[in-house]
Amino acid sequence: MVARRCCASLGMEIHQVSTIAAVRVTVVRIERMVKRQDTQHQTSRSSTDMNAGIVIVGGGQAGVQVAGSLRTIDAEIPITIVADELQHPYQRPPLSKSLWSDDISKAAIPLRSAEFFSDRKIALLTGVRAVGIDRETRRIDIEGRGSVPYDALVIATGARARSIRLPGADLPGVHRLRTLDDGLALQQELRGVDSLLVIGAGFVGLEVAASALQHGVKATVFEVQDRILARALTPTISQWLTDFHRRAGMDVRLSSILAEIVADENGRAAAVITDNGERIGADLVVTGVGAVPNTEFAAAAGLLVDDGVVVDEHLRTDDPAIWAIGDCVRFPSHFSGTSARVESVQNATDQGIVAAKNIIATLRDESQERYVAVPWFWSNQGHARLQIAGIGDTAKADVVIRDYGDDKISVFVYEGEKLTAVESVNVPADHIAARRIIAAGGHLDPSVAADPTIPLKSLIDTRAI
Ligand SMILES: Cc1cc2nc3c(=O)[nH]c(=O)nc-3n(C[C@H](O)[C@H](O)[C@H](O)COP(=O)(O)OP(=O)(O)OC[C@H]3O[C@@H](n4cnc5c(N)ncnc54)[C@H](O)[C@@H]3O)c2cc1C
């Protein structure tokens, strides 16, 4: 199917070629756009601040959100998304959750339909990489295609899968999972697989291992730390989940140091060797050792970077014309009182909404909004739906436990008398209530928190918290 669309605000043509249902490759005549914007820039930028418009680098959750929110606030301002992946923007969470059950190309749900962008005159340039920023003249350089002017720039470049430093990590049969291409490559090899090794007990690795088990595939998970999800969860819920996975048949190996990944006679990954010489074989290896923020683009332009593009409470970088949002950002957290970099759909979405308001407010000389959304996250691991609200001290052993039995539990983390985070498994009602309680200041009597017979929702409704 070939569809042709015209983006009036930039006077450019976009040809969309759908190869398979959910994967659309957009070929953009960017040269024409660059030429047109050049003309706009030279002739009228001095008379108004809003002719070049807003350029967003990155077509992920954050980039697409900020574009949509900008258009909701301002019907006219030109908006361009520069996205280096070839595919139409898609959601990442299904990649690890639907790997074994669905065709990943269909499971990768579009973030927004093609019509969403064309109807709103948002120019979506896929397969196009931004390689530099000239902050003096306010232009971004596009790889091999010249440059594009901006009045406001949003950096939403996300993160990439961290590479594992281990001999054999580049063998065929060793996979990572960040992009749709990664998911497609991994899914191609799943057929006929009986056993899987996962290196790294983070969210992605555990989701892949848990769903493998559900599909009859033996799963072994190696974690270098002495507990799973140590950076994200308290020891209590970390232990609870470890027990849960082990009961389901997952071989979870903690404090486990690997020496290498070794190949079979065909040169494919076939086993790992631990540092004490044990050999554990499997048909496939997946590495899930975290993500690295894509900050090189910002750093090369001299913006402040510290494991994330550094922004203020309004999500603005140290350049007043540049904002940054999503996985690539380090921001002052309203809840933890420290700076944070958060990789979650909620963070990318809510930062997109706030950045859009602040960009338009700046162009209109209005006041800015602080980013104060309560952080929340979910992860589906087999039959365990883990949900986290707030930011708590993940090293804290002293927590309040509300145990419902039957694989349902919530753990409440306090800082003094203030509730700062709630980790729940299979109790969505606690999670929803916790988000509201934390947003309202974190007032919850610990004895009430510990009592599973008192629904938290009833406390919110009656204002008894
Ligand atoms: C397998 C998986 C499962 C997940 N599951 C969950 C979950 O269950 N719950 C949850 O809350 N979160 C989950 N996440 C995290 C969530 O998907 C991310 O937090 C979210 O996608 C971040 O959005 P983003 O737009 O900041 O970054 P990204 O989604 O990484 O998008 C950034 C985009 O910018 C592009 N880009 C980078 N540099 C350039 C450049 N120079 N020029 C042009 N484009 C560029 C990148 O290629 C990418 O397409 C999951 C992530 C993965 C990988």
Give a short summary of the structure.
The protein has 465 residues and is of the alpha/beta class.
CATH C-level of the largest domain: Alpha Beta
The assigned CATH architecture of the largest domain is: 3-Layer(bba) Sandwich
Low-confidence stretches: 1-49
- Structural Rg: 24 Å
Mean pLDDT reading: 88
The rough form would be described as: globular
Beta strand %: 25-35%
Alpha-carbon distance between the two ends: 57 Å
CATH homologous superfamily title of the largest domain: FAD/NAD(P)-binding domain
CATH fold topology of the largest domain = FAD/NAD(P)-binding domain
Number of structural domains: 3
Strand line-up in the sheet with most strands: 6-5-4-10-22
Question: Tally of extended strands?
Answer: 29
Give the cofactors and ligands.
Answer: flavin-adenine dinucleotide
- Helix count, per DSSP? 13
- Percentage of helical residues? 25-40%
Structural class: alpha/beta
Note the main sheet: 5 strands, parallel
What's the arrangement of secondary structure elements?
Layout: E1 2-7, E2 12-20, E3 23-28, H1 30-44, E4 54-57, H2 61-73, E5 79-83, H3 93-97, H4 104-107, H5 114-119, E6 122-126, E7 130-134, E8 139-142, E9 146-149, E10 152-155, E11 159-161, E12 174-175, H6 180-188, E13 195-199, H7 203-214, E14 218-222, H8 235-248, E15 251-253, E16 258-263, E17 269-274, E18 279-281, E19 284-287, E20 291-293, H9 296-300, E21 309-310, E22 322-324, E23 329-332, E24 339-340, H10 345-363, E25 376-381, E26 384-390, E27 400-405, E28 408-415, E29 418-425, H11 428-439, H12 446-449, H13 456-461
Parallel strand pairs: 4-5, 4-10, 5-6, 10-22, 12-19, 13-14, 13-19, 14-15, 21-23
Antiparallel strand pairs: 1-2, 2-3, 7-8, 8-9, 11-20, 16-17, 17-18, 23-24, 25-26, 26-29, 27-28, 28-29
Helix pairs in contact: 2-10
The structure holds flavin-adenine dinucleotide.
Flavin-adenine dinucleotide binds at residues 57-63, 82-85, 92-93, 95-96, 129-130, 156-159, 177-178, 204, 294, 297, 326-327, 343-346, 348, 377-379.
